[in-house]
Amino acid sequence: MKNLCLLFTAFILVGSAAHSQDVIRQQSCSNGLIDRQVDSLKNLYAHDGYVLLKEASISMESEYEMPVIIPLTQGSWYQFIFIGDYTSRLYEVRMYDWEERQVIFRQKKWGDVDGNIITYSYVPQFSEFHMMKPVQVNKEKKKNLCGYVMLFKRTGANTGSLVKNP
After folding, report:
1. Is residue 90 part of a domain?
2. Rounded-to-integer distance, Cα 50 and Cα 127, Å
3. Does residue 159 lie within any of the structural domains?
4. Would you list the DSSP string of 100-156?
5. Pick from 160, 46, 161, 64: which is nearest to 55 by CA?
6. Which domain holds residue 77?
7. Predicted TM-score of the model (pTM)
8. Does any domain span residue 161?
9. Does residue 101 lie within any of the structural domains?
């Protein structure tokens, strides 16, 4: 019985120590305005010959990057979209290849026409993992900002008119 009590106490201590560690976990969020923008963009890109590969709503903190790791295939045409909280004043996305070279940098400000949406095309030179790092800066330094990321791949069904520069 004494051994059982010691074992139980050890499990409690280990469990509480593991639970109290500060671990960054991606959490989803919900924002009505962003949800409407997501729906519109999904329809627009689907009509233009893209298929949605991945999407996620992410809870973010002002001025902190949220890394998103994605496998990309050489020669495929991808479209990336980041939508930030409309109350933020600055939005940035940086993307890095496997060698940690920055291959994309985009920045938008609140006053821009489509200020809370960053979109860009990318055709990788190698099949490898890439890391997209969106960040937004909020004037109130909020901790629970909502963001949304989407990854589309061109199917070749329609050449469309959305793509500005591959």
Report:
1. yes
2. 19
3. no
4. --EEEEEEEETTSTTTTEEEEEE--SSSEEEEEEEEEEETT--S-EEEEEEEEEE-S
5. 46
6. 28-154
7. 0.76
8. no
9. yes
